[in-house]
Write a structure and sequence with these properties.
CATH architecture of the largest domain in chain A: 3-Layer(aba) Sandwich
Distance between the termini of chain A: 34 Å
Helix content of chain A: 25-40%
Number of strands of chain A: 29
CATH superfamily of the largest domain in chain A: Succinyl-CoA synthetase domains
CATH class of the largest domain in chain A: Alpha Beta
Number of domains of chain A: 4
Oligomer: homodimer
Structural class of chain A: alpha/beta
Shape of chain A: flat
Largest sheet of chain A: 7 strands, mixed
Chain lengths: 710, 710
């Protein structure tokens, strides 16, 4: 295990490339380390200078006594491997390679070499291609970004250089407090999962915020344990954006929809913009709400309405009990005020009205979260409102979340800063404040989940036998009856059905299994589009009709395709219900992922689907179903209602097949009050056994798969 | 016609209630007028003071020489009517009533009295219940908001007091330049339409921005002509928010979905947040784009990807021609830069790279809009980038739109302010800048529309006769065959069909009209749910089957409902196609509105519908169809495709019925390659003839309706 303390809590830091020339990046980094107030030993390395910025310089790291904790390398790319070797010789604990010109420009060989040296010598390697790192609790700023960092409790991990530096300046201006700042760059060694794991245990960090363009190892990321609130801003949501990100970072793209599913299943909150990400990060230091009922205190009706809109749009529940509210809040306002929530203490109320209303809001157990709004007026200093909020919050022992939105000029700006400095999320933008409160609610939901360690259940040996047999025939696509049989064995609910090789057998099966009314479909490896050759007959009602239609179908097909080998027919009991779709797809980043969606037009025209990466458990499957935009239809619609337990069962059962397939497409999965039925399933095997599943065959306790006959 | 110049360009302004007591609102207003630098005559009115703030005061307006342009009234509500009468006596041109305590607290009587005096004396009346108004081009600040207003070319009209005052401070801080600021309050007289009409002709105004909680007279608002870019921020989007807004303002609520349709058909851009509204307002002073291809210039890959995402999400087209881009932009950047659009001149490029790239971007005709991104670095001052953008833009003669997003600290903030001062929209938030550019594109689309003045076409007399006959029977719901007949007469495409009173007639009609396969449905005023009594038979294929099924149906129903009067049957040729829905609903604000949506689950579960208020033309109907989220389905899907012209025809034809109905519901309207078919229509008449349509019977050229027999 590499020691990341050497990066963030080093006692000795060396900078290779610490030039006396102020234009050089190495110089800027050294200067930031010195001016940032770092208290440990500072060691400039430069081939000719005797001192740099007043510190004794060494010609080479080899001249420095052994055991430097952190070495920052900022020299031309061609010299970096040699410098890395010196780091190994001198037993450095960690190395941050600032220099670019490695993987991102196609120079994979030297990047691999760096990684190899790091691994062989147990060195934690950050970069290459980064602007550095900072750890304000130790006053360490080993970056060539701005000198000043506003100290706080948020860890900001950025893949991007330019945006990261820009945001350093922005966070300082906005007084967003950072516990750490890390640029990941090419991630030759240290990646997101390493840092999250490290900061989970770091006493100075409360919240983690990641800016991400793409992962290098999706399967490793899946092992991340989220223990502290973690926000991710991942760009490349759009198809063109994803392409740009892939070309910019050189990483595998992976589907953004599947990234989205991964963030959800890990319990990471995904933000869409950086203002949202940072405002969430700030808000996530709040106490968690103990329920839903929220109250809005305002001095203006209009902003109250706008806030109500935002709450409804985001699913934040506004306390709605006019009588109780009237009783509690009437005394806080003039006659023309409103107790209807928004609690409108009115513009004339001044600080006193807010103070009273806030006291009640924090004291009443029924109120679970508090939103404070204020429009600046001439008569009341917004700073007084801010102080009132802070005092009430603290007097109540910070017992429930509170967010603030204020609209006004310079005095309002100062009042907002004051609140944020006191760990009360405040903004001049209503939507930003409400979205931050929603993030707190979402984190509370994530925290409430019982932890589970899902595994892929073993493929039943009978199913494995069928897959083996298909492969042995050189086929990669299962025939309909094979697919339905495999589904059934794995525990996917199917409609009653049978496979018959003759008309006699068909009648016998249909009667004994009570399949009427049934659909009959031809079974032949040679026929792909069954309907085109009249190979599908629906709504067969009895045995006489079955016999007639069977013979007619066989005659028809023999005429149309004389050479087709006809194996028999599938007989499937007709069922009705809401059309769903369940599938497995294989993502270049994350491996097999399960898809759920409403079938028919919803999937095809609206892409109304959700994803989770294998393996996941029933609770996750349940959430996955709940993400569908058209989920109302599942909840009961036109006399039809989904049977959720059997859908969940399906989503769990198909995972057993994940290691062995390229693709599964259950379409439709019909669902009604009584159950769900995989009417038709297309299963395509992964034939490339050597690369069958590079991810899943790793020795990896979390995502280990059982052995199977394949 | 009232003279609004008296409000905004007065030569003499009196303030009734201009107290020497600095706590009084009248004092604050007078102070703002004086300190704002107003150059006209200033007349304080106060019952006892001789001078106020150094100006000679009068005991009463009656003591002041005749012909004050603007009188501001800020005295207790009980005294306001009397003061208004004095204004009339002294021939004031305009009155702004600051005082609250009128309609908003249920005091309708006195508010009506104010309006009556205003109308009788041709006084333009603003308010009551407002914080005032300001017109910076004349240095007039007649409000009790902040003293300072940043002058510019945006007109800000606000219904809200508290939020309006708060935003006054915010716009000053953000240097958002205002040409006027008007609080509307209770809108006893002057309303949104009056102000938009006035500022359409005002030489100091370029862009209008309205903050709206609810209209008082929706039909009047529909007559608004949008001549300058107009942005609206309307709150009350959510059901709870709408309720709060209605209770706060006392106005009729009206459906927010229909408000949305109204804004669209008038060509008003609706923003969701005030930061969006103001950033759009700023951007709308830009030149309009002459096409779609947009270019992104950046110094960072990450922010480039984020911007690409935003562009794709908002439908802004990124120029995509790698070879051409490489040829044009390669020289502007180091080797490791990217010409792929985002054009990444890289962090090392400095100002020179931007200058070169900007020059090309503005010079090349192929490039229609420019997005500039910048992440602050230590080496380049963001102000230099801002200057480069401004210089390039101006040298090119401001020939195409440009927006900027920059991320960084204080220096970046200054650089952003500089751009905004120079009428280049710039923000630290990528999404805000891109949304502003999209607003410019949307305004360009609105400007490109050929103006039309839609009218409701007269109801054909045959249709009127049917409606009359139904009413004469005391019914308000048309029977199925009546409804289909009316539709047909009005020009709504229907499937081939007939109405038969006997089995012989049924067979004859079915054969002569070639209706097979057909659906047969019982016609009886006594039967509401036809299916429940076996009154619907589908898929009848020939005359023999028709005869049998006819007799069987009649026997069945006579048994089930012996007293039902059976008039005959509807015979409708079966058709297939995409299910749509077309309806008319009656909004309390806007009167009859037409709805379009995809039928079935889409309407019921997803509320995927769009609205327009009657009357509207074919181009508008076309846009209305294009707003459906699931519109992909109409464009061609699973072998089905909508016939748009016949859908448009339907949306136009139903408008003829709008004045006479409470509700129409064509469900389904089936559409396929060959046409559209109103299979079933429910028409409910508006029986309350005296209040049949208070809006539509006004003497009103724009929305005049033809006389009909009803």
């Amino acid at each position: 295990m590499k020691n990341l303390n050497c990066i963030f809590k080093p006692k000795r830091v060396a900078v290779i490339g610490a030039s006396p020339d102020s234009k050089k990046i190495g110089h800027q980094i050294l200067k930031n380390i010195i001016e940032g107030g770092y208290q440990g030993e500072i060691i400039p390395i430069h081939p000719s200078a005797d001192t740099v910025l007043g510190y004794k310089a060494y010609r080479s790291l080899s001249d420095v006594p052994e055991g430097v904790d952190l070495v920052v390398i900022a020299i031309p790319a061609v010299l970096v491997v040699k410098a890395m070797q010196e780091c190994a010789q001198r037993k450095a604990g960690a190395v941050a390679v600032i220099t670019s010109g490695f993987g991102e420009v196609g120079n994979m060989a030297e990047e691999k070499k760096l990684k190899q040296i790091a691994d062989e010598n147990n060195i934690a390697l950050l970069g290459p291609n980064i602007f550095g790192l900072a750890y304000p609790p130790n006053k360490l700023n080993a970056s060539f970004g701005p000198k000043d960092i506003y100290p706080g409790r948020i860890v900001f991990i950025t893949q991007s250089g330019a945006l990261g530096i820009g945001l350093m300046g922005w966070t300082f201006m906005k007084k967003i407090g950072l516990a750490a700042l890390v640029c990941l760059g090419n991630k030759a060694d240290i990646d997101e999962e390493d840092l999250i794991t490290y900061f989970n245990k770091d006493e100075n960090a409360d919240v983690l915020l990641l800016y991400m363009e793409g992962l290098k190892d999706g399967r490793k990321f899946l092992k991340t344990r989220i223990e502290k609130p973690t926000v991710v801003l991942k760009v490349g949501r759009s198809s063109r954006g994803a392409k740009a990100a892939a070309s910019h970072t050189g990483s595998l793209s992976g589907s953004d929809k599947i990234y989205d599913g991964v963030f959800k299943q890990l319990g990471i909150l995904r933000a869409d913009t950086f203002i949202e990400a940072f405002s969430w990060a700030r808000a996530l230091a709040l106490p968690l709400p103990k329920g839903e009922d929220t109250i809005i205190i305002t001095n203006g009706g209009g902003i109250g309405v706008a806030t109500t809109d935002e709450c409804e749009a985001r699913g934040i529940k506004i306390l709605d009990d006019p009588e109780w509210l009237e009783k509690k809040f009437r005394s806080t306002m003039p006659d023309y005020g409103s107790t209807k929530n928004p609690i409108d203490v009115t513009g004339g109320a001044g600080v006193a009205g807010y103070e009273q209303a806030l006291k009640i809001a924090f004291a009443e157990e029924r109120i679970k979260a508090v939103i404070v709004l204020y429009c600046e007026t001439a008569v009341t200093d917004p700073m007084d409102i801010s102080r009132a909020v802070k005092d009430a919050f603290e007097k109540a022992g910070r017992n429930k979340p509170v967010v603030v939105a204020m609209v006004g000029g310079d005095r309002t700006r100062d009042a907002l800063v004051y609140l944020n400095e006191n760990y009360i999320p405040a903004s001049s933008l209503v939507d930003v404040s409400i979205s931050a409160l929603k993030a707190v609610y979402r984190w509370a939901e994530i925290k409430s989940r019982t932890s589970s360690k899902p595994v892929i259940e073993p493929l039943p040996s009978q199913a494995a036998k069928i897959l083996d047999a298909v492969r042995a025939q050189g086929r990669d696509i299962l025939m309909e009856h094979e697919a339905r049989e495999v589904m059934e064995i794995c525990g996917v609910p199917t409609p009653p059905w049978g496979f018959a090789k003759s008309v006699q057998e068909a009648v016998q099966i249909a009667e004994s299994k009570k399949l009427y009314p049934l659909a009959m479909k031809i079974a032949s490896v040679d026929i792909v589009h069954k309907s085109d050759v009249g190979g599908v007959v629906l709504n067969i009602r009895d045995s006489q009709e079955l016999s007639e239609k069977y013979e007619a179908m066989m005659a028809r097909i023999k005429k149309a395709m004389p050479d087709a080998r006809l194996l028999g027919v599938n007989l499937i009991k007709m069922s009705s219900g809401i059309e769903c779709i369940v599938g497995i797809t294989r993502d270049p980043q994350f491996g097999p992922a399960v898809m759920f969606g409403l079938g028919g037009v919803f999937v095809e025209a609206l892409k109304d689907v959700s994803f989770r990466v294998v393996p996941f458990d029933g609770a996750e499957a349940d959430r996955m179903i709940g993400e569908i935009k058209a989920k109302k239809i599942l909840e009961g619609f036109r006399g039809m209602k989904a049977d959720k337990p059997s859908i969940i069962k399906t989503l769990l059962a198909v995972q057993k097949l994940a290691p062995y397939v390229k693709e599964i497409d259950i379409n439709p999965l019909l669902t009604n009050q009584e159950g769900s039925y995989a009417v038709d399933a297309r299963i395509v095997l992964n034939m490339d056994s050597s690369a069958a599943d590079p991810h899943l065959v790793k020795d990896d306790e979390d995502i280990e798969i059982p052995s199977a006959s394949l």
